TrEMBL record:
UniProt keyword Nucleus, yes or no: no
InterPro entries hit by this protein: KR_dom, NAD(P)-bd_dom_sf, SDR_fam
NCBIfam families: PRK07231.1 (NF005559)
Domain (Ketoreductase): residue spans on this chain: 6-182
Species classification: Bacteria, Bacillati, Actinomycetota, Actinomycetes, Streptosporangiales
Pfam families in UniProt: adh_short_C2 (PF13561)
The protein's name: SDR family NAD(P)-dependent oxidoreductase
Family affiliation: Belongs to the short-chain dehydrogenases/reductases (SDR) family.
Amino acid sequence: MSGQGRLVLVTGGASGIGRAVARAFAEAGDRPVLADVDGPAAEKAAAEIGAASVTMDVTDAASVQSALAGVTAAHGRVEVLVNNAGIVAGGGPLAELPVEVFDRVVAVNLRGTFLVTRAVAGQMIASGRGGCVVNVSSAGARQPTAGLGHYEATKAAVEALTRSTALELAPHGIRANAVAPGPVLTPMTAGLMADPRARAAWESRIPLGRIAATDDVTPLVLFLASAAAAHITGVVVPVDGGQLLT
């Protein structure tokens, strides 16, 4: 990884939206670091896009601190954080959902976002040079889907955390925003989208009539992290083809 662009830490960077976001930052001249619990997958993805990688379990505070320390020692301070790591871990009615599934989704989606934000924000504050956080939420935070209540609850919490982060870190010149995609074609959704009936059911909820590609999401992430968005903080912007209108 070379160049003089900003250092961008992308969690869940080995695949899906995270990988696409990291690639877009690299193409824009920044220096992305792909953080993922699957270290070999992150390393492979990073090599393919000319980036760096680090193994990080976002649910574990010690892992987060150790990974961040390694990134800082090797590449310098993180200037942009993209909290993308997230899972669904299955689904089902809340009355039947295994507690283990709920706990796992909360650990990754909410606790992980908190732990990484806390660690990176501390570094940004100490530097005195500001920074930027972009969280990945979901349209489901505001539009329920039966069987996904556990996942959607964590994304609603991520949106609340985004606003608190923006308010508390603004005096330090640190902005925090979020993007809220509808369904996106990624490895996480591939199984569902391979079922024609399931895919048609999702598409029927989207006024623009199609499932998003990762490249539909990346431009907004880059914009929110850019100087063009210098006076924007605490917002959650949908990228959902109009799904929240229905």
